[in-house]
Fold this protein.
Amino acid sequence: MSRIVQILRPAGLLLAFSALPALAQDFSERPGAEAVEICDGSDSLFLAIDRERELLVAQRKELEEELDRMELIRESVRQETARLAALRDEVQGVMDALVASEEAEIQRLVTVYEGMKPEEAAALLDGLDMSITMVIFSAMSERRASPILARMNPVRAQAISRILVEMAKLPEDRNLEGIRLR
């Protein structure tokens, strides 16, 4: 069964009428209205609407699947973030334990040097690497370090004194150039 469908375009407005030819005739007589008749029948219009509906349903399904995939990715990222945070905390714990262990060893070494006679400590510290000597002197009390420093090689004692002064400054203000070690 074929029905007449009229599409009216008054001032850019698109209207469709089906099975109401009298109403369509009335609107088509208005000024500025243009009537276009499609005699193909309303069945093709319904088929076009059904196709459009199928496309919309398929697009909605694709969007829902994409949202599901995105939620899975989001959950995976949350889990990975939690795993990395736990790993970071574990590494920080190990680092803290290492630092505490190193500080305990340094303090033990300082206690040993502080317990020695100043002449013996000075002789041993004169022969150590400067970085180790500096770590030991940095951790010693001034009262214990001064007799040892007084008995060390004068050039090395000057270098240690200058390094201690520079270490007290801000890093960008330090100047360790020209320090003689021997």
Remarks:
- The chain has a mean pLDDT of 80.
- The first strand starts at residue 5 and ends at 8.
- Residues 68 and 74 are 10 Å apart (CA to CA).
